[in-house]
What does this fold into?
Amino acid sequence: MFSQLKEDVACVFDRDPAARNWFEVVTTYPGVHALQAHRLSHWLWKKEIKWLARGISTIARFLTGIEIHPGATIGRRFFIDHGMGVVIGETAEIGDDCTIYHGVTLGGTSWDEGKRHPTLEDGVVIGAGAKVLGPITVCENARVGSNAVVVKEVPAGASVVGVPGRVVVKAKGVDEKRQAIADKMGFDAYGNTSDMPDPVANAVNRILDHIHVMDEKQDQMCQALKKMGVQVSDIQLPDLESCSLNADETSKIQDKDVKI
It folds into this structure.
């Protein structure tokens, strides 16, 4: 029990930069409290002590704002960030290393007995306010965007956005070039630029495409000048992530641009 608590708390530090120390996480994080209460209530549920199991889950909901049915199955290193308004139904199944944010519902779409809630495989991330409904499977390492409503299976590694949820298809061909330039510049729009239809990210991606073309043209011009006998200095560009030039350094680079 203690080793599982230790693992649950440790995963918070991997996914929440606001977490400062163990004491703070154990005493003030409602997601951790709700999860520990569920571990106990789920054990009681399996032992057929169902009234007490429901009583513990009700107290946990009152204290944390997170409602997890005692019958739900939850794997290791599950993290609920913020947590308020989270609802997880009786037949929901959650794998290892999953993360969900506030306002998420893992709900059912019928009153029939049996499996009626979603299954999240390992590594799934569900954004704030999303609704995943019915006995569907969100496959390994998939992502569900904020406020999406998902009623169909999500393939492994895919990202789903919108109402109703739709799989966002990654662009092909230019992604590797964009990513290489973005890595060089230190750009990462919340980790979602490659698969989320964010207009700001799309605009930045166009800028990255433009920079890539300009770099290629500049290299071609330098090669052509060298073939004509023009002496072109090979200047090492500064590291965009770690340095900013002062006025003296800038003037030196400008003076050494091209020597004829």
